[in-house]
Amino acid sequence: MKISRVLALACFLLAAISVAPATEKQLAADYHARRVALGNALQGGIAVLFAPEEPVLDFDAHRQDSDFYYLTGWDEPGAALMIVGPTPADKERPGQTAHPREYKEILFLPTRNLRLEQYTGAKMDAATPGVTRATGVDNVEPMTSLAADLNKLIADDRRVAINVWTQPHVKAADSLLDFTAATLGTTATEPRDVTTLTMPLRETKDAREIDLLKKASEASIAGQREMMKAVKPGETERTIAGIMTAAWYRNGCERPSYAPIVGTGIDSTILHYSANARTIEDGDVVVVDAACEYSMYASDITRTIPANGHFTARQREIYDVVLGAQKAAIDAFVAGKSKINDFSHRDPDTLDAVAFSYINTHGKDLHGQPLGKYWLHGLGHMVGIDVHDPAQYPAVLKPGMVFTIEPGVYIPEEKLGVRIECDFLVLPDGKLLDLDADLPHTADEVEAAMRN
Ligand code: GLY
Ligand code: MN
Asked: Among 136, 228, 365, 410, which is least packed, fewest CB within 10 Å?
């Protein structure tokens, strides 16, 4: 190798190290297995997934598309992934030109933009030395080959034209299919929604995903603990959000999993209040629904605490109803049978119905009415690369799934909202593991954490 090429390679590697994301990756074999599983689900079709472009305002944050990340662990913007599903020979129909295809995967990397790289850091392209190993994908090609490759696959087997799977609402996917149809002299057909195939794959987490989810919970717990020490009358909601954010970064997280919610007094009754614009007052409760992402995997935790360190009798009464509802759901849980997330709270197989029944039969409002009507949302949702990971709800809960149980009671008339939310993993033996077990749960535990 000429000295100038050695220098160029050394400079690239140094640049790559200096911009290397702090995210922990899984094994290349894990991502490969997911791509093969998707290939087998394609019914002989072809999937093309796109990573989002770098934000137009390059100082905005880039977050990889969740499905793209699940399948590749690849963080860089602007790439495309093609998965060619295998077609067994016996599926061939007489009279067609089709021939059996084997599984194939190609990662297409965009042309480098050296000027933009001065703003956002060095990227790889298909010519970068070691790129196949770095990506872990069997084949890496320049993005300019994508349309030609798809054209050839469809020209070889026209049936594939109606069996192309892409992410919905992705402009590049629509443009690719329109262009392919134009080059083949056919009418563009609607692509099929690849997220309907990735969703069931993503529902069950593998061991290394669970490790990352646990780390997200640990960092989020650290943030919630610092929050419990910092809350006091006179402090602002936004300062509390900032204190948690610092703890998340210190504990290795790259971003919040969602806009932090710090709701004091009347704000505690607004489910997704995230303006965080008020000052905490003596006598308030504060609902803090705030957690972070660790290496792209989310945590989702809510605690409700008294501003001055002591729940009033009424606040504690409502707190205990909500905690009791969470415990009732945990006690009723049966792996493979229980379901989660039914807004009606009525489907008897759902944990929602169990929690609703508890809330509606314990405690009363100021008019002597049951509390059920003060709970407005589903009991929980899947958690993974997205804080609300995709699932078909109400979802049957099985080993390997991670989900929240988050009952709440919100009484605006009393400026009193209480939500308690933990993340649970269904273990192989069907038992539930509370990933947030190290965080205070009971009213006494919360008050103790605020003292220490
Ligand atoms: N943590 C927000 C939500 O689950 O809706
Ligand atoms: Mn949640």
From this structure: 365
Q: Model-level pTM?
A: 0.92
Cα distance between the two ends of the chain: 62
DSSP run (H or E) holding 426: strand 422-426
Q: Work out which ligand 1 atom sits closest to the CA atom of 404.
A: 4
Tokens of 177: 């299919």
Query: In DSSP terms, which residues pair with 104 in a beta bridge?
Result: 84
Measured CA to CA, the distance from residue 286 to residue 263 in angstroms comes to 5
> What is the architecture, at CATH level 2, of domain 204-451?
Alpha-Beta Complex (3.90)
389 lines ligand 1 (CB under 6 A): no
Ligand 1 near 300 CB (within 6 A): yes
Walking along the chain (452 residues) 10 residues at a time, the average pLDDT comes out as: 44 42 87 98 96 86 96 97 85 54 96 92 95 97 97 92 94 93 87 97 98 98 98 98 98 97 97 95 98 98 98 98 98 97 89 97 98 96 98 96 98 98 98 98 98 86
Quote the ligand 1 centre to 290 CA distance (angstroms): 9
Q: Could you tell me which residues come within 8 angstroms of residue 417 by beta carbon, excluding any fewer than 6 positions away?
A: 263, 267, 268, 269, 270, 285, 287, 304, 408, 409, 410, 411
Mutate to test the pocket of ligand 1, among 300, 343, 383 (most ligand atoms within 8 A of CB): 300
* 104-109: strand order across its sheet: 139-142, 104-109, 80-84, 46-50, 164-166, 192-193
Short-list 89, 72, 86, CA closest to 34: 72
Q: In this structure, what are the phi and psi dihedrals at residue 64, rounded to the nearest 5 degrees?
A: -65, 150
Determine the topology of domain 19-201 in CATH: Creatine Amidinohydrolase; Chain A, domain 1 (3.40.350)
* Residues with Cβ within 8 Å of residue 177, at least 6 apart in sequence: 164, 166, 188, 189, 191
The pick from 340, 406, 422 for probing ligand 1's pocket by mutation, whose C-beta has the most ligand atoms within 8 angstroms, reads 406
pLDDT value at position 22? 64
Give the pLDDT score at 19: 41
